[in-house]
Task: structure prediction
Amino acid sequence: MSDEAPRKDLLQEPVAPELFVLRDKKGPILYAPLGRLMARANEPAISAALAYARDHTAYDAMSADEQTVVRAFNERGFFASRALPQHERTFRPTQVTLFPTNNCNLRCTYCYAFGGEGGGNGEPLTTMSLQCAQRAVDLIAKNARERRDEGDGTRNFLVSIHGNGEPFCAYDLIQEIVWYAQDVAEELGIPAVFNAATNGVLTEEQLDFVVANFNSVNVSFDGLPAFQDENRPTAGGKGSFAATDRTMRRLGEAGVGFGIRTTVTAAMVDSMPAIVEFVAQHYPGLEQLHFEPVWECGRCKTSSNVMPDSATFVKRYLESLAVAQEHKLRLVFSGARQDILSDTFCKVSSGSFTVTPTGDLTACYEVSYASDPRSKRFFFGRFDPERNEFVFDDAKLEALSTLNVHNIRYCDDCFCRWHCAGDCAAKVLDGIELEEHHGSVRCEISRALTLNQIQRKLDWKPQAEGSTQDGE
Ligand code: SF4
Ligand code: SF4
Ligand code: SF4
Result:
């Protein structure tokens, strides 16, 4: 670019405040998250870019070399002003997550929800009413149809089966829900999409039903037979590997897209690469492996499971990534998502439409009992069987909407601010207010793995045909 380029090209935009200098063994990296722009440069070039970003008038006093550098960064958009991410403010869901039951056929040693044991607070085992589930389907299907007709890009409605227990313990209800949603889809002329999160301990009949009706499935599985049997025993105290293994083989053979979520404890962390190797070899249909360090809550507090050390988790994750790349398997950790720009970690701020077995509406999967003190923040309405409709608490929805990274001062200086977006509210805001948000041990993992995503993009080189560059 020539030195004669008109100065107003440089000065017409306000400086983007979102400019970071990251460092690794190769030197500094200039990173503009909102544009997802990144560049390696030497120290003088970085200094010139920062001086200009802080004060445009500094340009005049710069040397010719510095001005050239500044113009080069400017041409690539590093100083451009960009709109900050904003989550959807209007509560008009086109997807619902139904928790059909809090009963469970397993007793996982770290279960956040005390599955099968009423949340640990003596709550009764409950199955959702069909009436409640049907009205939830009606609501999202109607919204989806209207939104599609308005041209906002909506193409279907999504019924997600999840639970604070194993949802397929309420198999009869799930069948009714799916059949009903299929009828509504036909009536309204908009497709229904189904996904499920399950522990994979299913009967043959349930498996047949899943294969025939579900678009995608997430199976909670601890990666190696011994860990699975130890951490995820049946309610009768037996191992669950054989049943979960059968489910994943069947899903793969049937071509149902499925992912595995593996909860990593300190005892498992060194085996993460071996887990990748195992699942890649045994389940060829697997689309994604999700590693998440255990969070010490729920039943975990009563067991010997502890969270792995963050540095070790990062180290083993990066080793796992190399194994995943060999197998062309997508590997994820929830806090590292450089490809996403958002002001919220999950849908908690836009009133995620999640219905508990008792018909309560919660914005958070992990807060599903009225007896949980966190329900004061996350519950925002309930199903009223008399009125045959959901009743929403607008003030609660408004309060939930404030749970976003715009309002978290602790994250202001973090380069992951618009990717991680303040992390999981249930974990970091356990009983505290937003202004007290001070991150968690997860920040170290999120930052290290996000930096690694940036490094891999920067240092990407075309590979020989048949190999992949990136496991993510
Ligand atoms: S399968 Fe899920 S709900 Fe059941 S005990 Fe395990 S983690 Fe909890
Ligand atoms: S706040 Fe955390 S636990 Fe709750 S739904 Fe969001 S990610 Fe899940
Ligand atoms: S400070 Fe922590 S919680 Fe906040 S954005 Fe960064 S990594 Fe996420």
About this structure: Confidence is low (pLDDT under 50) at residues 1-15, 465-472.
